[in-house]
Every structure is written in structure tokens, then in C-alpha cells.
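Contributing new records

If you add data, match the layout below exactly. Sequence lines come first and carry their own label; structure lines follow with theirs. Keep one chain per record. Anything else will be rejected by the validation script.
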Amino acid sequence: MGRTVLLACLVILVLAMFCGCTGILRNNTPATLTANSAPGLAPAENFVGIPTPVVDGKKIIQVYAHRGARSYVPENVLPGYRTGLAIGTDWVDMDVVMDRDSNVVVSHDLWLNPDIVRGPDGKFLARSRAAMLRGIPPGKTDEYLQPYLVRNLNYSRLQQYDVGMLNPDSPYAAYFPDQYPVNGTRMPLLRDVIRYTRNLTGGRVGYQIEIKSDPEHDTWTYPPAEFASALYTVLKEENITDTCEIQAFDWRYLYELQNLDPGIATAYLTEWDNEPETPYSFFCNDTSLAGLWTGGKLVKDYNNSIPQMVRALGGKCWEPEDVTLTKEALDEAHRLGLKVVVWTWPEHSGSAFDPVTVQMMIDMGVDGIITDDPGRLISMLAARNYRVPERFIGA
């Protein structure tokens, strides 16, 4: 009888310890773990929408391979995801738009971008994206772009365009001198990327998906509720609602997604332009500008704190541009239970990878870094004895 009671007590103790540890990983408080208690922790299981823990005195910093791994291969295409997974990443990152038939398509741009898009004749659509826009008469942008808008093209038409090479005449190409072309590459559906990644990784990698829109040009894409519904249908049908983080600069789309599923991990993107004294500052006295990308919500109503604003609006992640992040804002976000993942804009920072800025982010203790060059980021983490992601080699 005594041994039975003792065994029961031990079982209860083990269960209590297990539940406690699980609660630490899944609540909104960073945890301190030992290396042995967290071997090979997969983001899909532990760190979706919550701050990462500290392991052996070092905060786990997750790797997000941006658009696949566009420093090395064409962006937002299956060869790019193959490469990013082979290098190693905790998350595959992609942008999504919708075509004429409401398919969710992986693409960064609302309209066919001459920096990366060639037509059926094998020629780039213009010398560059900037050159194409400069050639449009004043006041004619909407009219001119209609034939190029993804929302106006069905998927079979989109498959006629090659996105497997950078336009060598474009300034954009200069940021990725090592990118290897894969001619004949087409835009994939979101389902394609999810299924490829799942088949290769067995579900051990998370999905970061950014909704693309432009509140200054609402007719270029679908309304927030319609887009959110189409995207959520894919997430549900592919069974990844618990292993994805959904980003947007245009927060209206995140509100609609949260209405569909309050538990989904939404990631609120901000950039340098949202900081004080910038063109689209959240702190601008002109409320039409201050609330343009937030659906009319104003930071002044949240103690002039972007982290407080994100948390109050239902966000689980705050994703600021790396050069804008301060330690004070990071600490505030962590106190609020927000996961903080930073990103780089090469056109702003001057390069696809800046090791000085990356070192600052590591020292600050961010939860994740979105990078065009996961290889260099992983090398920096490995050299500093940080956990590095698993690699997946596939065809």
C-alpha cells in the first residue's frame, strides 16, 4: 500500500512539473531553461506568437529565412524554400496576394514587378520597377497598372511569367549579387509552399506569412475581410493555424483575421516610416496619415507606445524594422508578453545583411531575426554558441 501511494505521488509530481513547463513555454512570459530541457525545440511546437526562452544564459534567437533565402536564390518560389531549408531555418517566410479567382498566391508585389518578372517573350517587363513607375503619366497610375495587377489575372495567366531571375538593369539586383538564377520558375500557390515545406520537414518548421496590401490603393487587392477569409481557409485546410505567424503592415487585415480566430498569432509590422518625424509617422498630428496603416487606430490613444498599441489590438508579435528598435521598446514589448522579431530593409540599410546591426539585435535579446541571408546569420549565432536551426535537404 505504501509503495502504491508513493508511486501515485511521483506520477502526480511528474505531471505537475510537465504541465508547469508547458505553461512556461506557451504563456506570454519568457522562460529560463537548461540546454538539456530544450533540445531541438521546434517553433511549430513551442514558440508561435510567444517570446523565446533563455537557454544556458542565452536567449534563443529564431531564424526566419526571408522570402525563401533571396540572397542566394529567387524570392518567394519553391527553389528558394528548398535552399532556405537546406541552409537551416526555424521559419519559412513568404508574402501573399490574391489572383482574379481568389487563389492565395505567393508573391511580394500587388502588380507584376519588372525587377524580377519576365513575360512570355522572355523579356523583363521594363528596365526596372522604378523606371516603369516613372513612365506613367501623372494621375494615370491606377489605369496603367490594371493589366499588371495580380488581382486582375487568373493563375494560368500568372504561370506565363518567369520569376526565376533578377533584372540585371534594376537597382534592386545590386543588393543580391550572389543570387543564383533558376530560369523557368513560376509563382507558387500558398498551398504549394506549405505542402512542400511540410513534406520536407515533417512539420518541424513554422510558417511566416505576410499579407500584402496598400491602403493608399485599396482597389489593387481584395478588401481586408475577403482576403482574411480566403487566407484563413487555406490555413485551416492545410492544418497550420497553430504553426504560423501572420504579418501585415496594413493592420486592418490582421483585425479581420483575429475576428475569424482570436487565437491565431498575428504579427504587427512597423518600419522606419512609422517613427516620429517620418512620412507615415504613427505620431503625426495629421490623423489621416497617423492612422493610414492602422485602420484609423492612433498610437496617441495607447500612451504613444507602439508595443502597448500592438498588444491592445490583439497582436501576439511585434515586428519592427531593426534599425528602429531600442532596448527600452524591446523590454516593454517583452513585459507585455509580445514576441519581438526584427527585419531588414536593404533599400534602407544599404545591404542585404549588416553584421553590425545583427550583432546589436543579438545583444539586445530579440526573439527572432528575419534575414535574406540565413547562412550568415546562422554562422554568427553558431560562433557565439547560440542554438542554430535544423537543416532539411530536399529535391
